[in-house]
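Thread: Newbie trying to understand structure tokens

Hi all, I'm a second-year student working on a class project, and my supervisor (Dr. K.) asked me to get a predicted structure for one chain before our next meeting. I've only ever worked with sequences, so writing a 3D structure as a token string is new to me. If someone could post the tokens and maybe explain what I'm looking at, I'd be very grateful. Here's the chain:
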Amino acid sequence: MNRFSENYTPLLEKLKNFRRKELNILVLENFLFFLNFFFISVLLLTFLESLFYFPSGFRTPLFFLYWISALIALSLKVLYPLSRKYSPFTPSVVESAAQKVGTLFSGIKDELLNHIQLFAAYTSRSNLYSENLIKASFDRFYNKTEKIDFLEPLTFSKPKKILPYTLIIITVSILLMGFIPDFNSALGRLYNYDQDFETPPRFKFTITPGNISVPKNQNVTIKVNVSGNNPSNVILLYKDDTQNNFASAPLSRDSLGNYQITFSNLRNSFTYYAKADELESDHYQITVIDRPIIKNLTLKILPPAYSRIQSSQQIDNGNFEALMGSNVSFSLIASKELKETYLLINDSLKSYFAINSNLAEYSFIIKNSFNYKIILRDLNGNLNLYPVEYQAKIIYDAPPVIGVLQPNADVNISADERIPLLLKIEDDFGFSKLNLAYRLSGSVYEKPSEEYTVIEIPVNKSLKEETINYIWNLTGLSLATEDVVSYYLEIFDNDLVSGPKSAKSPLFRLRMPSLAELFSDTEKSESLVEKELKEALNQAQDLKKDIEKLSNDLRQDKKELTWDEKENLRKTAESFEKLNQKIEDISQTLEENRKKMQDNDLLSMETLEKYMQLQELLDELSDEDMKTALKKMNEQLQNLMRQQAQQQLENMKFDEEMFRKSIERTLNLFKRIQTERKLDELVKRTEDLIEKQEEIKEKLSNQNLENKNERDKLTKQQEQVSDELKNLNKELDKLREKMQELKDLPNNEMSELDKEFDKQNNDELSEQAKENMQQMQKQQAMNNQSQISKNLSKLKQSLQNMQNMMQQQNQMKAFADMVKILDDLITLSKEQEKLRDNTRQNWKNSSSSENAAKQSGLKDNLERLLNRMNQLSQKTFAITPEMGKALGDARKDMNSALESLQNKNSSTASASQSGAMKNLNSAASLMKGMMDQMMQGGQGGQGGMMSLMQQMQQLSQQQMSLNQMSQMLQQGLQGQLTPQQQAQMQRLAQQQELVRKSLEQLNQEARESGRSKSMLSNIDETLKQMQEVITDMKTDKLNDEVIQKQERILSKLLDAQKSVNERDYEKQRESKTTNRHNPNSPDQLNLNRLNRDEILRNLINSSGKEGFSPDYEQLIKKYYQLLQNNLF
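---
Reply by user tm_fold:
Sure, no problem. This is what the structure looks like when written as tokens:
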């Protein structure tokens, strides 16, 4: 029995679980169906209500009927099956469950129900069945069904299928009833079943902006949207506080279906609503708020004082630009009393105004740009609406600009050790200071400086742009050869807000060149000029061949030129133009070289003048008339006929011949000047060596040779003297070679001088002096150094004697040759006059052929005379281009006369002979004038341009010395002047007064002699500056400004000294008169008596051979005597 019960209980429990799950599925399924029914019916009723708008009498029973039906359905389909889940598990329920299981499982069928009934029979103690058989059958069935899960066939698949539909129905119902107005209203009426509702209108109003507040004087647009049936017309009714009745305004419909109207400049609040077909909208209120506004805005800008910009003011305009550091003040008047006002800067920072009723003020220092708004708040808390956004833009003080105009590159220091600085400085508001910073960056003798020394250059601080002309005096630095000074200039502006800004120039270098370098550069430049002149001469010779060939080609009977002939003419003219341009380039190179040598004091006055004369010759070669003629020929080339071309070519042939001969003369004269310049160089080198040797000797006398550093330093300096002595010997050899190229120079004397220098053994003496110093034999070293100085002094004197001898020989020989040429010119002129008279008297006789023969003889004599004068012009500047032109014109006239005589045209021949005679007389007059000047130059000695140059040089040296003493005194000044310093200051003022008076007197003398153009163009300004310096010194004032004035005075004097020759020659080129000067007369020729007598004897002998008349021989002796008495 127990075993039987144990098997029945689990089986019964499985049946209970089966029933519970079955009921759960049923309840869930029925509940989903109920929800579907509920929402569909509610949606249906709502829809019907929205359509028919049921009265409350109909909606009340409908409401209750619906809810009763819903409750009945919920009870029968959900609640009742749910209650069965919890009812007792009776035998009938068990059998019902067993029967359902049997139907679900084909292997069980009725077998489960049968065993349940057998178990019931067994428990009732019925004897119809055997107990053992029942037990055995039940155990077998139990074992068969023990592992069968009765719940497996029961699933929630059907509820799951229904659930999506239920969710869709619920969602749609909620959306329709919640968001569709008609459904929502209908649901509300169904819910309030016992209330009566009015029938809705045919259309509905939607009005914007509804209830709002707007600022005064603003425009407002009211829009009315009508939904539903379109009304026939829509009007707007409105009334403000001043009206008793509503006013109406019809509304028109726009393209979007809206009705609208705009009210402009609202001043009062008003109520409004819309009306259509007796249907009115809700009433709305537009409240006009009186917000504060800016009635007047004043903005003042006060720039920083240093900018010197006037203050500015602007009204009702908040946009402004101001210099950084400017004081910006705001002042505004509002439309009503204010509670607060502030600047809203960049939408973040607030800066508050000071308030006084409806007035507000604020000021600040502007330091950057920003955007801002002005915000007003009245006592009621109302803000100004839509404040304007303004822009405050800052103007930055730009940094200054500095430009170095001169020198704008690294340069060498000239002999006067002064650097003229020309600067251009600019700034938008002015300057505070200008500094010149320099340091010794390279030196052979001392350690370079790491720190810069600063000199403040005076500037006009009130100007925004200035050109500074500053003379930098380097004499105080005591620079030695090959020292290098690095410098830059720095300008500071006057920005007191963010601090002065500066701008620096590039770093430049100044170098103190050695004499050897300067002379080496000069030689290179001279070699270039000589090479270019030779090339020009070769080109001129080639041009001559081209012209001759072209002239032969043009001798044809054709009237017109062929294309090839025109092309050859064009190329020939171009060659002439290129040759002319080459001469201009050579002239420019020579001019630059001459200025460089003059700046470094490398030339004697005599050689400098000859350079100027050579420059004049080159300038005259570049003839503007010739350029114009060539240009005109090129322009007319296409229309030239053969005869015209032949005439043009003949003119070109003559111009080419004169051009070529001028180049040849220039080249030969240049070679002579090179020799004289080389002599100047050797004199300079010797002077420099003497100074160096004496300086070493002086240092040696004051030094203790036991100090190794000092001993090594002196030894090194002596070694440099040895090297320069060797170089001097080489340069002497070069001079000897140059002189040998010119046969008429004193080559024998030069050879003797060279041998004498070799015998001195100066290089050995220098080496001995060096060894003496190394061995600390002080006295022996000084003795050798003294001997070197003595030998060099002797060499210097010999070189100067050589200079004098060369000048004397050239001058005397030129004068003698000119006397002979003048004699021949006069004779030739007389013969030409005699032949002209004969031609006039015998024009009817048949003597033309005889006269033609005589004219031909005169022409040959002129050709020989021209050749002699050409040879003389290769050696001296005394033969001027005007003389050559006059004789060239005479040759033309003689050719014309000869041609006329051959054609038996006596009248034309007579006219040409008169022209030839006139030109011969003109040439003779020019020659005589030059000889007179040579006589006057020899007699005056110190007169003329040479004297003016010397006096200007003396004044420059006096001013330079005065400047140095002034600077030394200034450096020693410390506060109050001592009595000794005051006395020294007064002496300096007196010396400056002496210089001023000397310059004033020199200017007066130049005016009286008609040479004022050779003086300073602004001499009055220079004299005025001198007077200012004198006044300052007399009042004990000696600052940087006074020193700089003195430097400018010195610069002007040096410029005048350099330009005396240039301006004088400029005058000669412009006037083209016969009053030409020959500056070949030397200042002093210190030859010995033997040489002078020998020169005189040679000239007298040559005069006898050349057949001088007694008068001319006496003239030569007189000229020589003048030279002897005044020049030697």
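A couple of things are worth pointing out once you decode it. Confidence is low (pLDDT under 50) at residues 938-946, 1064-1093, 1102-1107. The longest strand covers residues 431-442. Feel free to ask follow-ups in this thread.
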